[in-house]
Amino acid sequence: MNALLAPHVDLLPMNVSDVDEVLAIEYRVYAFPWSRGNFTDSMSSGYSCRICRIGGELAGYMVVMMAVDDAHLLNIGVAEKWQGKGFGARLLRHAMTEARLAGAQTLLLEVRPSNASALALYRHFGFRQIGVRCGYYPAGKGVREDALVLTHALDEVSA
User: Fold this and answer.
1) Would residue 80 show up in a list of annotated catalytic residues for this protein?
2) Residue from 21, 110, 136, 145 carrying the catalytic annotation
3) Which domains does the chain have, with CATH numbers?
4) 73 close to 109: Cβ distance less than 8 angstroms
5) Nearest to residue 159, comparing CAs of 96, 102, 105, 107?
């Protein structure tokens, strides 16, 4: 692609004014989405909440909770239109870099075993499974789905 035609990409802090757009994506890409309160509480708690805009259009977002020695990726989403184009990887790389700069040694996350595309992304970056949280996610009709717990040492070279 000609560099002159490439869309302009911005990684920006999420603001309350972005939440409606974030929720529009969240409700399209997740069967059990976060609520408005989950996002606004994350921002007011000082979590790292970022959005990715491409030519002004919201393409994705992420929420990372920083702790003393590690960080926890709580949510990451990419609009269907932008999936498979490297924007999830860009958000994940940014989360890892930001966590490392904040002093975190590791980045931890949970993922549904049924989320093949997310698992592929995390494995590409070198995340490894360290556990399972049984019945962690709602799966409808009273059923629950396990969560795979993955971690990545932030001093390791990433994709």
Assistant:
1) no
2) 110
3) 9-153 (3.40.630.30)
4) yes
5) 96
Based on the residue annotation, tell me whether 110 is a catalytic residue of this protein. Answer: yes
- From residue 101, alpha-carbon distances to 16, 31, 47, 94, 151 in Å are 25, 33, 14, 10, 17
pLDDT score at 101:
92
Token pair for 140: 């409808």
**Measured distance CA(61)–CA(49) in Å, rounded:** 7
pLDDT at residue 28 tops 80: yes
| Lookup: tokens for 92 | 């994940």
DSSP symbols for 32-80: SPPPHHHHHHHHHTT-EEEEEEETTEEEEEEEEEE-SSEEEEEEEEE-G
Rounded Cα–Cα distance for residues 54 and 83 (Å): 13
Of 47, 61, 122, 137, the active-site residue reads 122
Contact 61, 50 (CB under 8 A): yes
Instruction: Dig out the tokens for 54 from the structure.
Output: 């491409």
- The single-letter code of the amino acid at 87 is F
Q: pLDDT tens-digit profile of 30-66?
A: 999 999 999 999 999 999 999 999 988 999 999 999 9
